[in-house]
Amino acid sequence: MEKAEKLKELHEKWQKECKCALKDTGVRAVFGDGNPESEIIFIGEAPGKKEDELGIPFVGSAGKFLNEMLENIGVERKDIYITNIVKYRPPGNRDPEPEEKSDCREWLIEEINFINPKLLIFLGRHSMNDFFPLEKISNVHGKLLKKKFKNISCEYFLPLYHPASALYDGSMREVLMTDFQKIPKVLEKIDTGITTYVK
């Protein structure tokens, strides 16, 4: 069976088993999307209105900007994999509650380990704080973090601001574009091996 088919089965299994209360308000589960062989997984926060309608992550305005930034580093959207820490849209696009994140957590972990990327890229503080609760995105955006988690195969992490932040604050656009330019260099660094760990 192809890896894409197995990944679909994984999502369908968790769609049935996930106990997240957002199931009752969202239109559908929004599965991760993209290349199951990708070296990178981008992790956002939660689906928005457009994502909930179409069942694909990052298809609204923030998604368009994300695609533009990917193009700038010579990467096509179909070559990467993108998902969210919460698989259902919170009402009114509010922030997901801790319990909702927790209820979707095993789904996310299994998804990450199945794809087994070299690098996890956090899009925004919510996804970053799910893994690094004490870090502030203003301090670590664009910086490679290395940490071993007991249940995650990947140990390299790159926090970035959420693409939506550039839609509300024009100055963030430049910051995000600059941070995105670091992605190919970060992948090179990982290939050569890094010794610095974040506690």
TrEMBL record:
Catalytic reactions on record: Hydrolyzes single-stranded DNA or mismatched double-stranded DNA and polynucleotides, releasing free uracil
Keywords: 4Fe-4S, DNA damage, DNA repair, Hydrolase, Iron, Iron-sulfur, Metal-binding
Entry-linked CDD domains: UDG-F4_TTUDGA_SPO1dp_like (cd10030)
SMART domains documented for this protein: UDG, UreE_C
GO biological process per UniProt: DNA repair
Alphabetized Pfam families for the sequence: UDG (PF03167)
Taxon lineage: Bacteria, Candidatus Nomuraibacteriota
EC number assigned by the record: 3.2.2.27
Entry's Gene Ontology molecular function annotations: 4 iron, 4 sulfur cluster binding; metal ion binding; uracil DNA N-glycosylase activity
InterPro entries: UDG_Type-4/5 (IPR051536), Ura-DNA_glyco_family4 (IPR005273), Uracil-DNA_glycosylase-like (IPR005122), Uracil-DNA_glycosylase-like_sf (IPR036895)
Entry protein name: Type-4 uracil-DNA glycosylase
UniProt record similarity statement: Belongs to the uracil-DNA glycosylase (UDG) superfamily. Type 4 (UDGa) family.
Keyword Ribonucleoprotein in record: no
Annotated ranges, domain Uracil-DNA glycosylase-like: 31-181
